[in-house]
Amino acid sequence: MSETGYRKTLTHFLIEEQRRRQGEGVLTLLLADVMTACKTISDLVDHGELAGALGTMGTENVQGEVQKKLDVQSNELFKFCNTIGGHLAGMASEEEDDVVTVPAEYRGRYLLLFDPLDGSSNIDVNVSVGSIFSILRCPDGIEQPCAEDFLQPGVEQVCAGYTVYGPSTMLVITTGNGVNGFTMDRNVGEFFLTHPDMKIPEETKEFAINMSNQRHWEAPVKRYIDECVQGTDGPREKDFNMRWVASMVADVHRIMSRGGVFMYPICNKTREKGGKLRLMYEANPMSFIIEQAGGMSSTGRERIMDVQPDELHQRIPVILGSKAEVERIVSYHDEVD
Ligand code: AHM
Ligand code: MG
């Protein structure tokens, strides 16, 4: 907060970041468009059934998942808000089979990837959901990007962020210079800096995993969770707590705030598909944020942001959160591999 008692707006924060980078302001303007999409989705989520936003569409997305009305509306909003700004060469969405093209007259130099409404199984029960996005540079000399142009490892991300539509709507963002959190003032319609320079607490007593998959897990994950559950009677010599919202954005946001580890590991149920969560729309942007906040993100066997993607909708095992915990889980994998 400033001496006057006023908080910095997201726009002012981004302009300061742009000066630091000596950028031209393109990313700042692009993010303003992304924020318009997020603010509008926040409003839809707020109104729920009043906005006719709940329920299913009766359609399936490219992943073969039943689409909720809000999945479809959020996807349309992201595309609409980000097409004519002139900053994007193309978009890719978890809800779309192929790359979303940007008409030639509007084409810019960045690529935007997004999961417009993550955790959509929670929409109809009025539990937190979120949006996740990742920004890459369009490779030089590409007029109209195709899927291959998006297949860049997470280390190439220019920016990543998520918006959690919870009791309050919060945006958490990184441009590679730490992580900052903003809370939306619904009356003013603006995000204000409320959580500067977020760092993941190192000390933790919490884990987040879907325990119903326990019988399908691999030995290293079984061992880690088993040791946590043993509490003061086991090798960790402390009691752990478990939380699972089943909205990655909400679960990761809790870990950003309180520390801990979030896992959707490879298991017998997800092995055929390569994992449950999507590399380009979920794992990479969240990994960028987690690493920038001092945490760690791994498949259990390699750093997620180093993975060279093979396809746009690729799935991947995810283990992220407080560094020492993730290191421990990776070491358990090393011991058996
Ligand atoms: P979605 O993008 O279709 O909403 O699916 C991703 C979500 C994540 O937010 C969450 O961590 C996970 O799926 C929950 O999976 P499960 O229902 O198996 O617990
Ligand atoms: Mg998702």
Automatic annotation (TrEMBL):
Pathway(s) the chain acts in: Carbohydrate biosynthesis
Keyword GTP-binding: no
Cofactor(s) needed for function: Mg(2+)
Residue ranges annotated for the Fructose-1-6-bisphosphatase class 1 C-terminal domain, each copy included: 200-333
A single GO BP: fructose 1,6-bisphosphate metabolic process
Compartments (UniProt record): Cytoplasm
Cofactor binding mode and count: Binds 2 magnesium ions per subunit.
Binding annotation for Mg(2+) 1: 94, 115, 117
Binding site residues for substrate: 118-121, 210, 276
Main location, first listed in the record: cytoplasm
Limits of the Fructose-1-6-bisphosphatase class I N-terminal domain: 8-196
Record's keyword terms, sorted: Carbohydrate metabolism, Cytoplasm, Hydrolase, Magnesium, Metal-binding
Summary of subunit composition and partner proteins: Homotetramer.
HAMAP family listed in its UniProt record: FBPase_class1
Family: Belongs to the FBPase class 1 family.
Protein's recorded name: Fructose-1,6-bisphosphatase class 1
Organism this protein belongs to: Candidatus Terasakiella magnetica
Source species taxonomy: Bacteria, Pseudomonadati, Pseudomonadota, Alphaproteobacteria, Rhodospirillales
